[in-house]
Amino acid sequence: MTTMVPIIDFDACSLARSKVASDRLPELARSLLKSLSVDGVVILKNHGIDEKEIRSAFDLSDEFFRSPADNKLLFEAKSEDNFKIGYAHSGTERYSRVKNFREAFRLRPGTHSTIDTVVPGFVKAQQLLFTSMGKLVQRLVRLLAIGLEIDENVFTDKFKKMGEEGNSSYMMHNWYTTEQSFDKSGEAIRLFGHFDNSALTLLVTSKHPGLQFRNREGEWSDVPPSGDNIIVLIGQIMEAWTEDKLKAPFHRVTFPERDQGTDNRMSCAFFAIPDNAHTICSIHGSEKYPPFKPDVFFVDKLNVLYK
Ligand SMILES: [Fe+2]
What are the two backbone dihedrals, phi and then psi, of residue 96, each rounded to the nearest 5 degrees? Predict the structure, then answer.
């Protein structure tokens, strides 16, 4: 059975608006919360990020991934960096103990200022998209708080420094090669099943199918390629923060037969993490989730994932 992913019309909160349409917020907040409460995944349309801005960041990261290996390795992630910011070449990362055949580039504003020497225009394009994604996160978490009927600033207050020192949120470009991994049942997989350890993940993908989440019935269900929309996933930080009212979906990327042997699949994920200085307490003081530091929580989960 395939579950349809709920589509949310974000127009009332679109970034194309200088001010949100306040009179429409309660309805949008209710609808967003209700939809995310089902399986932890929604598709946002009319989000207001310019399609050209997304295309430009995608095209320039594609150009980077197609550049000579020696150039890419100049930006390789340092092994001592807990967040793995920088370039990772294919097969170096093991997810759930199995090799992933994808190249990846994790970045934050200011982390790779010399990359324009390899791909002119890269820095500005990524900075622009990062900033827009950060603004969208601010609007999304405000709506979630309204929907949860708590102080609407409870979440937004914790995301004030995205893109600055003191916040660990990052953007990750993925470039899946045409090599395959296989799961235990022999199914071709591009990325093994996992939970995201962020608060929210915002995702855009190339035209390639394959993203799936496990629905309430425990069955894999397709998420269509994003097109002009943005896919939003709940992460484990938000799950703990809301005491399981919003659950992080288990998800993976398969390698459908019709897509095999063709070109590379690309995606860009924005992992929103609250500012490092805060201690996150569950909204009603749950004992299941004791207070935690978001950056420490994130890295602990990342280490489990890549063990
Ligand atoms: Fe993920």
Answer: 50, 40
| Residue 270 CA, distance from chain mean position | 4
Dihedral sign for Cα 161, 164, 168, 174, please: positive
**Tokens (6 digits) for 164:** 């600055």
Q: Which two tokens stand for residue 161?
A: 């420094």
Q: Ligand 1 centre and the CA of 194: distance in Å? A: 6
CA of 39 from ligand 1 middle (Å) equals: 14
Cα 262 to ligand 1 centroid, rounded to whole Å? 23
Please report, as a single letter, which amino acid is at residue 35: S
Q: Nearest to residue 155, comparing CAs of 34, 6, 33, 268?
A: 33
The pTM of the full predicted model, rounded to 2 decimals, is 0.94
SS3 (DSSP) at 242: coil
- Give the residue-averaged pLDDT of 37-47: 97
Torsions phi, psi for 136 (to 5 deg): -65, -40
How much is the pLDDT for 258?
A: 65
Instruction: For Cα atoms 237, 243, 249, give the angle at the middle one, nearest 5 degrees.
Output: 55
Mean pLDDT of 223-252: 96
**How far, in Å, is the centroid of ligand 1 from the Cα of 113?**
27
Question: Tell me: the pLDDT tens digits for 288-300?
Answer: 999 999 999 888 8
Q: Could you tell me which of 143, 117, 116 has the C-alpha nearest to residue 127?
A: 116
Give me the architecture of the 7-305 domain, per CATH. Sandwich (2.60)
